[in-house]
Amino acid sequence: MSINKKKLTTSWGAPVGDNQNSMTAGSRGPTLIQDVHLLEKLAHFNRERVPERVVHAKGAGAHGYFEVTNDVTKYTKANFLSKVGKRTPVFIRFSTVAGELGSADTVRDPRGFAVKFYTEEGNYDLVGNNTPVFFIRDAIKFPDFIHTQKRDPKTHLKNPTAVWDFWSLSPESLHQVTILMSDRGIPATFRHMHGFGSHTFKWTNADGQGVWIKYHFKTEQGIKNLAVDVAGRLASENPDYHTEDLFYAIENGDYPSWKLCVQIMPLEDANTYRFDPFDVTKVWSQKDYPLIEVGRMVLNRNPENYFVEVEQATFSPGTLVPGIDVSPDKMLQGRLFAYHDAHRYRVGANHQMLPINRAKVEVNHYQRDGSMRFDDNGGGSVYYEPNSFSGPVESYEDKQAAYPVSGIAESAPYDHSDHYTQAGDLYRLLNDEERVRLVNNIVNAMKPVEKEEIKLRQIQHFYKADREYGKRVADGLGLSVPQEV
């Protein structure tokens, strides 16, 4: 017997035809601004909580520098990467994702890894995580995903049923779920974890030639993780453990550092690679595209005031410099809007003028007024463009590189839907002790789930990635792998 379900609608009551895929020009995008449902979801989501960040609320930050160690000028014209030995000041903010401002540092959660480069061509923000992939690959699903990580609106408690219900209905999450539930789900410190740009970006050189790239920050302290019992004890005894560790490491002169590498893919390979290179739930094999060293980042100075420098720091993957462009990654395309919009709401329209966010070079534009404008507001200078009064003008040579798009404007999914191969490969890379811990973490996390059908649906995903993986989880939960799998 069919059950009449309520139609999902927009905030103005119109029915929603597709809540899984944003509207793009062809299957690879770019995302279209005419997708008013996507814009409304993201804009409303950014305004749901006041005044802390909606995500990445709990964090720590530090100042330092980035030094180029390898010539990459044949790939990008970005000025801060223009010569070996060139140093650029940076500010980095580490964070957990789902917890509130007062939550514990040692919870099982991805860690934000956001770097602001104060370059001679303006600021460049590289806003990623300590994982190379993410749970979803389309920004239209982001508000729903984060709702499952936050508190239930009725009980105001964390809701494992919502978490696993969403993941089980979103098989693209399996790769990131496997990482999260593995040993890497709880880093020992912010210093002992890698960082990733996660998305695919585009580098363009001085001749206008481009390549697709992925960023990898490799910790020079080595990877260290926390055992579940130790993490739980620290959460109660010292909930600010990671914040404290970072501060005192720098205070005592033990400066943390990372080596920055990139993977480089020729533009034409994007059409033939066995995984969609713009799908943020997938990685590129380092056998296919080896890591190329770019430089080294060192953190050597603590903030003088947490609120002024860490809490008011704003980052966006849309804060770009010439030579670095975006890709058709649908999750990235949504973040280009959502991050700047979140900062305009949380910190204010003039957040870029605050000392921690302000570029080290002269800023020239025609933006005026707005809350908390604390400079001369442009004085009596010309305030529009084009003009006949020698105001700032665009520089054609600094335009983002063009790339062709085609297709029908529709809410289109990615062409590829293999959500299991890479998750299975990751499982098989683990030794048996690591697999045991992974399965135990998953089982313990899934036990509170209220509906058995959700557990069985998720077990199917584990089983499709690797038979042993699925069977071990099923056995741990006292269930059988569904016969149809």
UniProtKB/TrEMBL annotation:
InterPro entries listed in its UniProt record: Catalase, Catalase_3, Catalase_AS, Catalase_clade1/3, Catalase_core, Catalase_haem_BS, Catalase_immune_responsive, Catalase_sf
TM segment ranges: none
Ranges where the record places region Disordered: 1-27
Family of the protein in this entry: Belongs to the catalase family.
UniProtKB keywords: Heme, Hydrogen peroxide, Iron, Metal-binding, Oxidoreductase, Peroxidase
Organism: Bacillus chungangensis
Catalytic activity: 2 H2O2 = O2 + 2 H2O
Protein EC: 1.11.1.6
Enzyme class: oxidoreductase
Gene Ontology MF terms: catalase activity
CDD domains, A to Z: catalase_clade_3
Pfam families in the record: Catalase, Catalase-rel
Ranges of residues in domain Catalase core: 9-393
Superkingdom of source: Bacteria
PANTHER family: CATALASE (PTHR11465:SF9)
Taxonomic classification: Bacteria, Bacillati, Bacillota, Bacilli, Bacillales
Protein name per the record: Catalase
